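[Discussion] Sanity-checking designs against the backbone

I'm trying to build intuition for which residues belong where. Below is a C-alpha cell string of 306 positions. I'd appreciate it if someone posts a full sequence so I can compare it with mine line by line.
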C-alpha cells in the first residue's frame, strides 16, 4: 500500500495567509497605539517607556537564548547602530507626547508621511536615484501634510509639530535600517528596545505615578502586543511578496480612525481626512515606483514602515 501524496499548500494560500498576518499586525499596532494614548493620559512617558520596554525585553529573552547571545553584538556600522537607537528613543517620546494631546488618527496621519520623507532624503543619504515621477509624488505628499496640518497661528500647535518631528525621526530610522540590512532583525529590535528601557530608567523616577495592578498589566501589555505585532509583520513578509502586503499597512489609518472615534470620541476633521488620503495615495505611488527601480530597498522599507 503506497502512501497518499502529500498535498503542498498552494502559493496563493501562502499569499492569503501573508495578507491576513499583515492585517492582524496592523490591527495590533493600532490597538497598541490607542492603549498607549489612554495610558499616557495618566502616567508619564518615562513610565510607559520603562514598563513597556521591560516587558518586551522579557518576551525577547527566549528568542535571544535560542539564537545565541552573540547575536546582540552588532558589527555593521557601529555609529549608525548607536544613532538608530537614539532616534528610536526620540521617535517614541515624540509619539506619546503628541498622542496625549492629539487624536490618534491625526498622529498616525503625520506618521504615514514617513515613506515620503524617506524618498525625499534617499538621494543624499542612500545614494538612490529618484526620478521625476517620485519627486512629483513627494511634492504631492508634502501638500497632503500641509492640508492635514493646516498651518496657521491658531492650528500650528506644539503637539502637531512634535508629531511631525517624530515622523521625521521615524523616516531617518527607516533609512538607517536600510543601511543596516546585514544586521539581524532581532539585534536591531533588541537594541532599539533596550535603548527605550534605558531612557525610561532615567526619565521615569522624576515624575513617577504609582500604577494600579490593572495598569501594571496594561503597561506591560504595550510591549508584548508590539512584539506580537512585529512577529505578525515579519511572518507576513515571509509568506507573501512585500509588493503584495505593503499596501495593507495603510489600514493603520483606518484603525486609528475607528479607535479614535469609539474609544476617545474623536471625530476626524475634513482637512485631516483629505490630507490623509493624499498622503496615502502619494505613499502608495512612491512604493510602486520604488518596487520597479529598486526592489530590495522597497522590501526593506515595508518592514520598517509597519
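Best answer:
Here's mine. Compare freely.
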Amino acid at each position: 500500500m503506497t502512501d497518499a501524496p502529500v498535498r503542498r499548500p498552494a502559493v496563493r494560500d501562502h499569499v492569503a495567509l501573508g495578507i491576513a498576518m499583515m492585517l492582524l499586525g496592523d490591527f495590533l499596532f493600532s490597538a497598541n497605539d490607542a492603549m498607549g494614548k489612554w495610558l499616557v493620559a495618566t502616567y508619564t512617558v518615562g513610565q510607559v517607556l520603562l514598563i513597556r520596554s521591560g516587558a518586551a525585553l522579557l518576551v525577547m529573552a527566549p528568542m535571544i537564548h535560542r539564537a545565541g547571545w552573540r547575536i546582540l553584538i552588532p558589527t555593521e556600522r557601529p555609529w549608525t547602530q548607536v544613532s538608530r537607537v537614539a532616534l528610536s528613543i526620540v521617535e517614541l517620546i515624540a509619539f506619546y507626547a503628541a498622542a496625549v494631546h492629539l487624536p490618534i488618527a491625526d498622529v498616525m496621519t503625520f506618521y504615514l508621511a514617513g515613506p515620503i520623507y524617506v524618498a525625499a532624503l534617499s538621494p543624499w543619504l542612500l545614494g538612490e536615484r529618484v526620478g521625476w515621477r517620485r519627486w512629483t509624488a513627494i511634492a504631492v505628499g508634502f501638500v497632503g501634510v500641509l492640508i492635514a496640518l493646516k498651518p496657521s497661528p491658531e492650528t500650528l500647535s506644539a503637539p502637531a509639530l512634535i508629531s511631525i518631528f517624530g515622523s521625521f525621526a521615524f523616516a531617518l530610522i527607516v533609512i538607517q535600517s536600510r543601511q543596516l540590512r546585514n544586521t539581524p532583525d532581532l539585534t536591531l529590535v533588541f537594541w532599539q528596545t533596550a535603548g527605550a528601557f534605558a531612557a525610561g530608567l532615567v526619565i521615569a523616577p522624576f515624575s513617577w505615578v504609582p500604577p494600579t495592578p490593572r495598569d501594571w498589566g496594561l503597561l506591560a501589555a504595550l510591549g508584548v502586543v508590539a512584539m506580537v505585532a512585529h512577529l505578525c509583520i515579519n511572518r507576513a513578509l515571509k509568506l507573501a511578496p512585500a509588493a503584495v502586503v505593503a499596501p495593507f499597512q495603510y489600514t493603520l489609518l483606518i484603525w486609528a480612525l475607528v479607535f479614535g472615534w469609539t474609544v476617545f470620541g474623536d471625530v476626524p476633521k475634513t482637512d485631516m481626512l483629505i490630507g490623509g488620503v493624499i498622503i496615502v495615495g502619494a505613499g502608495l505611488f512612491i512604493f510602486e515606483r520604488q518596487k520597479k527601480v529598486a526592489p530590495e530597498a522597497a522590501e526593506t522599507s515595508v518592514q520598517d514602515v509597519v
